[in-house]
Amino acid sequence: MADGAKECEPASKKIKIQSDIQENDENIHTVLKDFSEFQQKRILSINSQRKTICIEGSFNNKSGTAIVLLEKKPFNEESLKNTLDYSCTLHKEFSNDIYGFYECFPSVKYNGIKTTVIHPATEKHIKKYQSQDVHLIEETPELYNSVTLPHLQKEKFSLQWVINILEHKSETDRVVFEDSNPEIGFILLPDLKWDAKQIEDLYLIAIVHQTGIKSLRDLNSCHLPLLKNIKEKGIKAIKEKYNIPSSQLRIYVHYQPSFYHLHVHFTYLKYVAPGIHAERSHILSSVIDNIELMHDYYQKATLSFVVKETETLFLEYEKRGIVKKR
Ligand code: G7M
What we know:
By secondary structure, this protein is an alpha+beta fold. The chain has helices spanning 77-83, 123-129, 141-155, 160-166, 224-242, 284-293, 297-300, 312-319; strands at residues 38-47, 52-59, 65-72, 89-96, 99-105, 113-121, 134-139, 177-179, 186-190, 203-208, 249-254, 263-268, 281-283, 303-308. The chain folds into three domains: 28-73; 77-108, no CATH class; 132-319, HIT-like (HIT family, subunit A), CATH 3.30.428.10.
């Protein structure tokens, strides 16, 4: 074994991730056709720059909280062809000399709003979508082991959607590429945030088949073949399907992620995707390079991350006096 390298456990020995769906659970997405049964409770956040609004509510005769996230879509060449024609009516607001200001009403077909419905939503989902003050935590390995890790083991989000993708039960028709190798394989598909209609906001994620890798913190030299495989085959698949060269892709992982099963983000470089800021994203090439320089770099490094004030992880750090509200 190379000097400093780690003995790697084969993926076949790792534990299987558990499905938490009960046979008789009722899924609203099999029947939801409109919002006639939706009762709004409150607005969780509005982002005028991203043109999103997030609403908390519930559905009549259904138990549990619902979260509805609405987002206006970007323009694309295809839909534009059908937008600017006779079916698109104009209401004039005012004009001045050569300048006319109108409100334009494209036909319903070309006026869709990207909509995400989460039901039943947990308290953690509500906190995630609620606008609030954020703080930066500089997490040393000691803080990870004594605060973050015990918190994750107690509180983590359900990974059901990830299991469904890996087991080919959901989003099967959206899969762009799969390498089914249990050690280094992954599934590449459009992220929830991308409708896959235009490359201007291209956003894909690669979800690894190997279980038990929670986040960047767990990565070491054993994972180099996996990380390199995702980079190489992810780039190739995107080039083949969307004709985007690797030099126009941003390939990265989040720390902290929202879901503790390793996944890598691929976004179009020109697209200012949510979560690409310095305090959250780690470029995959640098991750690989850091591990090649030091096999346990991510177990030794201090990693910064952002936490919202109402998140329980913030409260854990606040309890220890590491972070304070204004
Ligand atoms: O690294 P982090 O955990 O923050 O990112 C998770 C990513 O998974 C986000 O970009 C989400 O938009 C995406 N995502 C979340 N869910 C629940 C789904 C899903 O059900 N399907 C797909 N394709 N992406 C999802």
